């Protein structure tokens, strides 16, 4: 039987969208943007690369 990943919830997508565009709290010039971090959906700073949010999906092993 093939494994499938659950679809991302609307709450997760809303959280990522809400944080994108805000100022980075870790550096003076950075802005948060949606990206990937260690192969996960995330919001990271475009200047310092610090992840603010990472989204993990449950393992279906």
Explain what the structure shows.
There is one protein chain. 16% of the residues lie in helices and 28% in strands. β2 and β3 form a beta hairpin. It has a three-stranded antiparallel beta sheet, with helices on one face. The protein has one domain. It has one helix and three strands. It has one helix at residues 10-19; strands spanning 32-37, 40-45, 51-55.
Defining key terms:
single chain; 61 residues; alpha+beta; three-stranded antiparallel beta sheet; 1 helix; 3 strands; 16% helix; 28% strand
Offer a quick outline of the entry.
With 61 residues, the chain is of the alpha+beta class. The protein has 1 helix and 3 strands; from the N terminus they run αβββ.
Biggest sheet features: 3 strands, antiparallel
Radius of gyration: 14 Å
Number of strands: 3
Mean pLDDT: 83
Spatial separation of the terminal alpha carbons: 12 Å
As a percent range, the share of helical residues equals 10-25%
Q: Which strand-content bin applies to the residues?
A: 25-35%
- Could you state the order of secondary-structure elements as H and E? HEEE
- SS field, number of helical segments: 1
What would you call the structural class? alpha+beta
General form? globular
Number of domains: 1
Spatial strand order of the main sheet: 1-2-3
